[in-house]
Amino acid sequence: MSEYKGRCFCGAVEFTVSGAPAAMGYCNCESCRHWSAGPVNAFTLWQPSAVKVAKGVDNIGVYNKTPVSYRKWCKTCGGHLLTEHPPLKLTDVYAAMLPDLKFQPAVHVNYKEAVLRIKDGLPKMQDFPKEMGGSGVTLPE
Ligand SMILES: [Zn+2]
Ligand SMILES: [Zn+2]
To answer: Which strands form 14-18's sheet, in the order they lie side by side?
Structure first.
């Protein structure tokens, strides 16, 4: 089984993910933008059991603005680690945290909130796919 290592900006926190992600893509929502201070969030979604903290578990801070997203970071460097989505039973390990994983984005979500138009030919979901409780509606790039 494939295993990928990730670490925070300073290295105080290290973790692994194993197997294959359930989905990969880009989130264009306002919350991802505000939290990350970047225009989009490149996500990889995993079963929560696939994610294991290898070092620095006591050094992880967590904040949940809503019950949908528990955002985690390193208390020393402030580097972002991942977001747990308990209602979806999935964990987003930001693609930038997994340098050895071949990032193969398949979709943009929450494109109605996008500030950066990205003409990459991928489907642009207005919010989320139907199977994730969204409208399933796609928008033009
Ligand atoms: Zn750190
Ligand atoms: Zn988002």
So the answer is: 3-7, 14-18, 51-55
Ligand 1 centroid–CA 21 distance in Å is 24
Compute the distance from residue 128 Cα to the ligand 1 centre, in Å.
31
- Distance (Å, whole) CA 55 – CA 6: 11
> How buried is 120 (Cβ within 10 angstroms: 0-12 exposed, 13-18 middle, 19+ buried)?
exposed
pLDDT in tens, 55-88: 999 999 999 999 999 999 999 999 999 999 999 9
CA–centroid distance, 110 to ligand 1, in Å, is 29
36 Cα–ligand 1 center, Å: 15
- 0.90 exceeded by pTM: yes
Q: Output the CA 38–ligand 1 centroid distance in Å.
A: 19
Q: Ligand 2 centroid vs 110 CA: distance in angstroms?
A: 7
What is the phi/psi pair of residue 59, to 5°?
A: -100, 10
| CA atoms in the 13 A half-sphere facing the CB of 9 | 9
Closest C-alpha to 30, from 126, 113, 116:
113
